[in-house]
Amino acid sequence: MSGVELAQEEAGMPDPQLLRVEASKIKDYLLNLEHAEGRGKAKFFRAVGFSEEATDEMVDAFRRHAETNKIAQVVEHSYGVKTVVECFMETPAGKAYCIRAVWNDHLDGKPPKLVTAMPLSKLTA
Prior knowledge:
With 125 residues, the protein is an alpha+beta fold. It contains four helices and four strands; from the N terminus they run ααααββββ.
């Protein structure tokens, strides 16, 4: 079994409390209704209760998501190692939604950093 296959079977990423989630990734991308690529993500994340005023809450939610969900995919590439974690994330709205979060380890000795996230669940009334 390769390291990639082994990682896919493990539940959660190691040391989730150390994972890097930049405030700019949240404010300027994931919650930015004006961002060309992030607009749809921003609509979703705002609708489930995340806000620019409480970015720490979103950082904590992504770290818990990485800790409590299985790793769906690990891919080595020219910028390091990409890890995809999928499924349920608790939200301020009180409901869990299936989210895909992509983390990158640049192999620079620092913890992996959040690259992007997107909902896999649809909002329901």
